[in-house]
């Protein structure tokens, strides 16, 4: 990054601060300053505004269609919400609720594109190294939380109340690590899996000891998570290897040995882990969690998961005709907005993200916002596929961690919002690998020589045809 202007340095520093707060804010809210839990809910917002200010000064704040549409839809949603709530709710409460709704839905999403502008592939690799290093203490903490009783100090929730963490099977809670709830580990473990696979596929990027210990830590954390979402999130990252193989068939030979090594290591870890009490208990809890959910839904484990995924995207269709054209008010569906309105965090509208959006902003603005999020997920996919064709696999691995959050992640939940924008931004940053036409070229099977990289016609006109070695310029040639 030495070739980047000094004006970008404050942006990059503040992005690192944002990442640090994302990791520790839950710990501060539940263990260190529980009495300030509510104000600390938005602890990253001042840093975010600082990033935007510095990005504007450095002229890297995005002005693309996504950001413009987010601004237009957000402002219109706020204005409409104030008008429809004015006769029923005090103006101070209206402003607090709608501002929190604007913050949750629209304010943080442009950070995706700021991260993409301010960071590059080397920065993403550094973030990956820290992610793998922190995976070790994160896993230890999750194991301790899994073994502790649900009402122990280490398992307390944010704030001063007596509420407990979400439970799973066997009388255990779902360990949240340093985060407020299990949603944090879901994203963190998937990010660790992405960087772990990238390190395994890319020689020399991370130390071997780090890959091995972080792999063991990741497996232990998944085993004690008690969360189907954790298992599925890490599984999605693993499935992205299939995309790598399909898009770049030449990668099969290169990653085949690595995949075999990873499979053997995983098998050994599970085999020996079955003799470790907490690992064996964790596997039993996870198994019970999957089977009991399937029994409740009267379907198979796989069938139940598929039905749940489909419902996330189809449920809004049944509510569109029942929701007022202007909606019920921006922010009413978030836990933070509900706290301003009724004094406690709860879901007043729906836990389904797309239903919440449509119910808050109405069918027109709500569906407009959903379309923007779908388009953003599409942009991430196209960018990561271009990078993959150019030979870089990290972007597609990070795409597998971010796309569901961009599509329909619960942005009203601060940890989900933070990880969504960070992982999506890192996905785009890792995709900046130059001209995709300059793909890695394999040696010719007959001659054994490596052909020159392909260039565009425009580049040939500027630099000349390097392949045309028969033509000379006489004494001018050097």
Q: Name the overall outline.
A: globular
Q: Overall mean pLDDT score?
A: 83
Structural Rg: 25 Å
Please give the domain count.
1
List the helices and strands in order. Answer: HHHHHHHHHHHHHHHHHH
Structural class, please? mainly alpha
Per DSSP, what share of the residues sits in E-state strands of 2 or more residues? under 5%
* DSSP strand count: 0
Distance between the termini: 34 Å
Biggest sheet details: none
Low-confidence stretches: 435-448, 450-478
Q: Given the structure, what is the number of helices? A: 18
Percent in helix: 55-70%
How would you summarize the topology of this molecule?
Elements: H1 9-32, H2 37-40, H3 45-57, H4 65-85, H5 91-107, H6 111-118, H7 121-147, H8 183-201, H9 208-225, H10 228-247, H11 251-273, H12 277-296, H13 301-314, H14 335-342, H15 353-389, H16 394-408, H17 414-430, H18 457-463
Helix pairs in contact: 1-3, 4-5, 4-15, 5-14, 6-17, 7-8, 7-9, 8-9, 8-10, 8-16, 8-17, 9-11, 9-12, 10-16, 12-13, 15-16, 15-17, 16-17
